[in-house]
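Exercise 7.
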Amino acid sequence: MKIRLALIRQYPKKGDLESNHQCLTGILEEITNHKPDLVITPECFLDGYVVTEAHINHENLEEYAVRPEDSKYTTHVADWASANSCWVIYGCSRKVPGGGVSNSAIIFDREGGIHGNYDKTHCPAHDRSFLPGNALPVFESDFGIFGVVICADRRRPECIRSLALQGARIVFNPTYGNYGEMNNCLMRTRSFENELFIAFTHPAQSLVTDPSGKTLLDDSDENTAFSICEVNLADANRRRARDNSFLKARRSDLYLR
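Solution. The predicted structure, written as tokens, is:
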């Protein structure tokens, strides 16, 4: 099955939710004409990844976080998703029931419903004000099973492998951290060893790698705010059906846990 992806490539403003929302609204209007099946924003796009600022701590981070169920910002994104029959993976700081904030990707389906969310599981020093996620779930969709990881999660081979073993043929990776040549090598390797697609979405780079480890898209054009890439998810099925498929040939009886 072929799906068309729109990867947003734009630096948001630190701590300015209103400005970042207006920026996203304008980009979504441009994307509409391309009729994508799924749109991905960079990590914490709504708040501009404000957690890295020196004055942010566990207490005041909540000022920049939202409840996706009733935020005016997420409601607008949900309306756009519904109007355009398009999935959206939206990076934001999310208020967690019971207290605290997670670095989250909110997943909207084609009807504009909140299909789920993924919380960043590996939080480095500048992310310590976040509550780390405690699960690596996959999500069902009309185009099959997919997974999500956020930024630093991709640097742990166990994360992508866990999603692949649960049937994910594509992993969406909102990020704000490292990008460029070293990251390209990492993403190509993660795709190759897990026989799946990865859509890496950074404010400065849009990158898509395929199940054979090849690069389908690598766009860093500062004059455009998004990139479009079409992928055929059947390529992952074909890769995994080979006699020498990496996933089929695993020796889990040998591996340390």
